[in-house]
Structures are given as C-alpha cells and as structure tokens.
Amino acid sequence: MTFSSKSKYLFLAFCLLPTFLLFLIFTVYPMLGGLYYSFFDWSGTSANKTFVGLDNYIRLWNDSIIVKAIINDFFFVFVKVIGIMTLALFFAVALTQLKIKEAPFYRIVFFFPNIMSVVVIGILWQFIYDPNMGIVNSLLNQVGLTEWARPWLGDKTWVLPSIAIPAIWAGIGLFMLLIMGGISNVPKSLYEAADIDGASEWQQFWHITVPLVWPQIKTSILYIIITSLNGSFVLVQVMTGGGPGSASEVMGSYLYQRAFEDFQFGYGAAIGVLILVVSLITVLVSQFILKKEKVEY
Amino acid sequence: MFVIKNRKQTWFLVALMSLMLLLVACSNDEESNSDNEENSTTEQSTAPSDNTSAENTGDGLSGTLEIQYFVGGYGDGWWKQVIGDFQKQNPDLEIIEHAGPNINTEMNTRWISETPPDVVYIDGAGASETQMIAEGQLMDISEFAKGITLENGTPLLDSFISPAEEVDGGKIYSLPLVFDTWGTWYDTKWFEENGWEVPTDFDSWISSMEKIKADTKIAPFVTTGQHTQYFHRGVLNPAFAAAGGEELLNDLNNGVIEAWKKPETLEVLKKVEKIAKAGVIDSGFAAYNHTQSQMNFLMHKNAYIPVGFWLPNEMKNDTPDSFEFGFTPTPMNDPGQPLALVPDIRTIAIAEKAKNPEAAKAFLEFIFTEEYAQAFAESTGAIMNMKDVDLSSNTNVQDFLKNINEMINNPGAVHTYKRYTPDAEQQKIAVEITNEIKLLIIDILLGDITAEEFVDKMVKKAEELN
Known about the structure:
The structure holds 2 protein chains of 2 kinds. By secondary structure, chain A is mostly helical. Chain A has a single domain (about 50-290), classed as MetI-like fold (Orthogonal Bundle). Helices cover about 70% and strands about 0% of the residues of chain A. Chain A is built from 12 helices and 2 strands, in the order H-E-E-H-H-H-H-H-H-H-H-H-H-H. In chain A, helix 4 (about 105-110) packs across helix 7 (about 160-185) and helix 11 (about 250-260) packs antiparallel against helix 12 (about 265-290). By secondary structure, chain B is of the alpha+beta class. Chain B has 2 domains: about 40-180 and about 345-400, D-Maltodextrin-Binding Protein, domain 2, CATH 3.40.190.10; about 180-345 and about 415-465, Periplasmic binding protein-like II (D-Maltodextrin-Binding Protein, domain 2), CATH 3.40.190. Chain B contains 19 helices and 13 strands. Chain B has helices at about 1-25, 30-40, 75-90, 105, 110, 130-135, 140-145, 190-195, 200-215, 230-255, 255-260, 265-275, 290-300, 310-315, 355-365, 370-380, 400-410, 425-445, 450-465, and strands at about 45, 65-70, 95-100, 120, 165, 170, 175-185, 305-310, 325-330, 340, 345-350, 385, 415. In chain B, the strands form 3 sheets. In chain B, strands 1, 2, 3, 4, 7, 8, 9, 11 and 12 form a 9-stranded mixed beta sheet that branches. A two-stranded antiparallel sheet of chain B has the order 5-6. In chain B, helix 18 (about 425-445) packs antiparallel against helix 19 (about 450-465). The longest helix of chain B has 25 residues, at about 1-25. The N and C termini of chain B lie far apart (about 70 Å).
C-alpha cells in the first residue's frame, strides 16, 4: 500500500499539528510571556506595569539568596543523579539478572512512589522527620543514638540531605523500569559467552550491562537534571518553605516567594528566565560530558 | 509542481491555524472571562427575589453587586448572613458572591483586566491593601465614610476600635472591618490545674516559662519556623511597640536606619536572645509549619504560642475537650508597663472601577451595626472593629473573646498600637526588611546570632535599601 504525497502530508499534519499547537500555547507562549514580564516592574495584580529594562536582571546579579538557591539546586541535581542512578541501576540489575521470584512484586513496590503526588510525598516525609513523633528520631532514640536525633527539617545543616532522601526515594521507580527495559534487550548470549570466558558478575555488569544500557542511563540522567532544576520546588515548598531561614531555598521556591508573596511578579519572571537559562546550560554541558559512542557487540 | 504547491498550501494552513488558535487562546475577552466565572464553584449569585415585603420593594437598589471575600479561619457564615439580609432589603439587586480560600488568586485576572468586583474584603494570601492603594485599585471613600452615622447617631468613623486609616494626605480607601490581633495563647485550664500564673510582663513570662519547663520537662514556647511572620507579628511587633511606641514600631518595619540603631531596639532583641538562651523554645520549631506548631501546642507539648485570634476556630476539629483557650497580648513589655497589642486589621473597600458604586456604598453602610458585630464574634471567634459592643452577655461568644473585648474597651492594662499601611515607596523597603527579619528570626531563636548581630545586619540592610 502506498500513500500519495497529499495524504502523507495530511497524515503528518494530523499527527504533529495538535501537539505543535499545544506546545505553542502552553510552553512557547508562557515562556515568551515570562521573558517579556521580566523587563517590567509589575506586581502581577493590576494593569500597571513599568518598563525597567534590565533592572530585574541587575538585581538578580546582586541578590545573595539567588546564589544560595542555585547552589542548593545543584546540590539536589548532584545528589539525585548519583542516588537515583545508583539505586535504579542496582535494583534493575537485581530484578532482571538475579532471578528473584518476587521480582514483579518489588517492581510494583519500587514504582509505587511515582504514582503518588509529590505533595503527598512531602507531607508523608514531614511526618517521618517530625522531631517529636517522627519515625526517624524514634528509631534513633530506641537504639540508643539519642544524640543523633534532631529536628531534621529545622536544622540548617541537615535540611538539604533530608529533602534529598524522599526526592531520591520517589524517583527510583521510573528510571529502574527504563533501565530494566534496556537490560531486557541485551542478548542473553553475551552473558553466556562472558560466563564461559570466566567473567565475574561484576565484570559482566561493567563491560556488558552498563555499555549496552548507556542510552537509557544517559536519558535518565538528563531527565533527572531537568526535573530537579524545575521540580525541586514542590518538595521544598511543602516540606520547609525554603527554610529554616533560607537554608533550603531553591530557585523555584524563591521565584514563588517573590512573584506571589512579595508582589514582585517582574522580578519573579526574571528568576524564571534564570531557571530556564541555567537548565539549558546544564543540559548542554551534561550532554557533552555524557557523550559516548553507542556500543554494539 | 502540483506537490510543491500543495505542500505550501498545507504549511500555510498549518501556520494560519496555529496563529488563530494562539490568538483565541491568549485573547483578553471579557465575555469569555465572565462565562468562566459563572462556572466557578466559588461563585454564588443571589437573584432578585420575589418574596420580599412590600415596603422594601421600589425602595432598594438595582443592578448587580459583586462582592469578593476571602474565606479563611473565620468561615463564611457571617458573610452569608449579612449578604442574605442585604438582599432582602434590596430585592431588585442581583448580588454575586466571589468567595473561597483562593479567591484572591482566582479574581486576580479581573483586577488585572480592570473589571474588578464592586466590593472587596481584603484578607488572606494574595491580597495586599498597600499594593491595591498604590496601584489605584481602590476608591477614595473619604467623603462617603465621613457621612455615615450609626443608628444611635454616632459617626461611623468615631465608632471603630482601630480607626480607619488615612493615607495620601487624609484619604480613606477602606473601612476597618475585622479587629484581629496577634498575641500569645495558653490553656487556661491547664494553667489553673498547675498553679501557673499568666504573665503580665517580660520578666514574669520568662519566670513562667522556666517554671513550666521545670514542672513538666517540656519546652514551653513554640512558634512556626516556616512562617516566621507569626513570631514577627506576634512577638517582635508588640515588643517594638511596647519599647518605643507606634513610631518605633512603624519606623523599624519601614527600614528607617536610625530606628534600628536605637537602644530600645537592641533591648527588645536582647529579650529575644534571652528567651533563646533560656532553652525554653521547642528545639524543632524551625521545622514546623503553622499547623504542626499549633498541634503541638494543643497536645501540651508546649505551653505558649504566638498566633492571631483565628486559632480556636482554625483548630476547632483538633482541640481536646479539656482544652480552654486563653489569650494575652504577648508580654514583652517591661514590668509596670502596659501590655502591647498591634492589631491586624482586615478591611473592606470599594473598587475604583466598581460598576455599581451606589450599591457597594450601601452595602458597606449596611454591615456596620451592633447586631452584625455580635453575629461576627459568635461565628468567627474574632471581633468586628466596633467600639462598645457588649459581648459579655452573649452566650454564643467564647470566653477568651469576651475578655479581650473587655481589655480593648478598657484601656489601661493593654495599650493598642497601630502599624500603619506603608505608602508605595515605603512598601518596597518594608518587603525587603520583612524578608531580612524572617531570616534573622530563625538565626536568633536557634542561638546562632546575638541581639547585636541581629541589629547590625538589620542596620546594614536598611542602609542598603535607603
């Protein structure tokens, strides 16, 4: 069966046009809107706007909280990439290679946090960390490590790692499934051949599994970077509101505070543009670092 | 050739459709706006009714009156009552209510597109009277307000506990409707059982906290570290007012450099440092949001908490039966000095672009009566901002409210100070000052900085901003 040129283009338009239009309306338009508003002194609550040129960007440059927020954002990126990828790879290999009978059960258990709302996860972990009735401090007290118990989310040193743990916990499932899909496509004969050649399981992991699922690993890392820079805000907002003080402030939570609490929408929009620029640069740099020849055996 | 032409046509069609869809989606169409609002769950329209008494018919107002009100800790019972009564009096008027906990955000586009509702009750997140005045969104109602008299002949402006604010050289943009105030809460019954005295000044407060700590091994003081405005408005502001009156209170919040350098300011922060050093603050406070801190307070994990009047209403579903709310202006005053209250007044105003200003004015005039003040105290747990309303015989009003109402109407032990609405320029500085205080409150309560360091950082910030 052959398609005429006309029907081919009609079919293409049918597939692409709706998505393209939605992309224009819900991504491109708000993005351009954000860029436009970043050049104004605007409260976001009235029709009065004053063009201020690059004033908001100059202010960004001199704002000490912004520096802190960027550092905190990159802390989350770094910890989440390492934590999620290590555990997701480990679980994926364990569930596919080790022939565990209960593998389907674990697959569901590990994926479960992905279907939970991030807000629910934040509230849940707030209870886990509660200084009085939280399970973390209760366990520490029971095993005699009383001096280790602390108000995790109220401690300037420990607040970031404390938020990173649920972020990792909630992120593992999706990437585990992605990598499992990659592993299941690796021909079994390669492992059999490696076995015959006397390669240990560790060597098989490094020399067969990792190179062959590298495309999935790379995609996962980039996805974690993007979602972390754009999405850490939700957990932070629910669990600490950026506190104590500004100890867990990320760019997203600071944007929210400025735009919607301080009525400085123009400045908030400038922070939004900064998030976009930082995300783009980070993804480009990461792609360059992760560039690796596709391996085929 | 035919194919190329066709392809061009297809792409032209695609581009045209994209453009049209974009324009339709982004257009600022009033009609579609109001259509959406009719579907909003927060909106309720009371159509002109037929079953009204004959004497009202013909007398009343007509047209449409749109009222925007935030529904928070006070609930919406009072609003339903007054709007219902106003409707009865004006059967030909269609009243549209825009209400809910997120109503300020939901109505934002109406304010931006300059088609606001007629009446707005300014309260809750996303609403700022200062901002609205600065943006020219509120109507100057000075002359109208001066002309209103109550049933007993007293001018309305003389009947407020906290007076209507005059800005821009004597202009009145809003009427102060709700007299709310921050202060410190405790459990009256628990205090009586243990023989703990309610403090009347800073020294007795510290002694009381030390005694409670010794008796129960709990940290007596808790506040929310996530929302430090609770400590700022509930403890610092009354302390500033007690130490240096309204001038110091307003100057500090508006970032006046000299005010931050005053010895009275340092004295206040020394008191805060003393609280921190006494080890009476819940060690987890910095992690708590307001609900967590309030829950701990209700569970007797703490004995004192700074919150506003709405606390009992907000926590009514979680309050143990044995718990009896007690309220005192935060005792940061020196011995022998009166306790200081800094009211947090919630106002009602008319939009500058109101479509039915006559009905809006009539509504504002209608709600300020003793009857509605009584109803307000019954249903909200707060006080309507009207003097000489006798709540003592009203059995539906909670005891703490009767006591505080008595205190307010009988000055002597308690002195009320006003935090004035800053003007547009002051507001820019005030926002940054508040943000800086927010950070430093955590530092000083955690014991990471001293009172002197607090003051130094604030002076530096004020210098940067001025």
